[in-house]
Write a structure and sequence with these properties.
Strand content: 15-25%
CATH class: Alpha Beta
CATH architecture: 3-Layer(aba) Sandwich
Structural class: alpha+beta
Largest sheet: 7 strands, mixed
Mean pLDDT: 75
Helix content: 10-25%
Number of helices: 4
Radius of gyration: 16 Å
C-alpha cells in the first residue's frame, strides 16, 4: 500500500486574496487518488445513495456538509475580452478550478479536468445543467497560449478582481463544486483525480436537482 501524501499546493503570489478561511476543516486525501469528502445532501433527490458516491464517505454521514454560499459577484474576463461574473452560471452545477501556469500541481491536473469535461460531453451537446470552468490570475494572453499548447478546451477566465471572501481561496490549485442552489458542496485544496465515475455521477446528480433560487 502506498503512503498517503499531503496534497501539493502553491501559495498564491502577490496580489492574491488575503481573505480569512471560512472553512475550519478541510478533509484532505492523497494528492493524486481520491477527492475530498463532500456534502451530497443536494444530490439526495437524484440518487438513493449519495454518500457512497465519494470514496471515504460511505457510512460517514456526519462529514456531509456544505461550505457556505457561493458569491456570484466574482469578476472575470474571457479570452475574448468579455467582462462577466459568476452570475452567468447561477442555477447550474458549477465546477471551478483555480489554477496558474506557474503552479506545478495546477498544471498536473489540467489534463484530468479536460478529460472530465470531455467525458461529460459538455461542449458537444451544449449541456447547460453543468458548467466546468478554469479561473486564473495569469495574464490573459499568457494563459490563453499556455492552455492552447496543452490542448485544453475547458472554458477559461481571468480573475479581474480579488476573489470573494466566500471562496476562502488561500492556495493553488483549489477546486469548488457549487450546487444549483448556490451552496458550495466541495472545497478541495490541492490537486486531485477528477475524471472518475464518482465525480461524474455526483455532478449529474446535483444537476438533476435543478435551480432552486429565483432569477436562474
Amino acid at each position: 500500500m502506498s503512503e498517503s501524501r499531503a496534497p501539493r499546493v502553491v501559495m498564491k503570489r502577490r496580489g492574491a486574496s488575503r481573505a480569512r478561511i471560512a472553512v475550519a476543516v478541510l478533509v484532505i486525501t492523497s494528492c493524486a487518488s481520491t477527492p475530498v469528502r463532500v456534502s451530497a445532501q443536494h444530490a439526495a433527490a437524484a440518487t438513493s445513495q449519495p454518500a457512497a458516491m465519494w470514496p471515504g464517505n460511505a457510512g460517514d454521514h456526519d462529514s456531509l456538509r456544505t461550505f457556505g454560499a457561493a458569491d456570484y459577484s466574482w469578476h472575470l474576463t474571457s479570452f475574448d475580452g468579455e467582462q462577466l461574473t459568476l452570475e452567468r452560471f447561477r442555477g447550474r452545477t458549477l465546477f471551478i478550478n483555480v489554477w496558474a501556469s506557474w503552479c506545478t500541481p495546477c498544471v498536473a491536473e489540467l489534463d484530468d479536468i479536460q478529460k472530465l469535461y470531455d467525458s461529460l460531453r459538455i461542449g458537444e451537446n451544449a449541456d447547460t445543467s453543468i458548467a466546468i470552468v478554469l479561473i486564473t490570475p495569469d495574464r490573459r494572453n499568457a494563459a490563453e497560449r499556455f492552455l492552447r499548447r496543452r490542448g485544453v478546451t475547458v472554458p477559461a477566465y481571468i480573475e479581474t478582481r480579488r476573489t470573494p471572501a466566500a471562496f476562502a481561496l488561500r492556495a493553488l490549485p483549489t477546486t469548488y463544486i457549487i450546487a444549483p442552489n448556490g451552496d458550495i458542496v466541495l472545497l478541495r485544496l490541492g490537486a486531485a483525480k477528477w475524471n472518475t465515475p464518482e465525480v461524474r455521477a455526483f455532478l449529474r446528480a446535483l444537476a438533476a436537482t435543478g435551480p432552486t433560487r429565483s432569477g436562474t
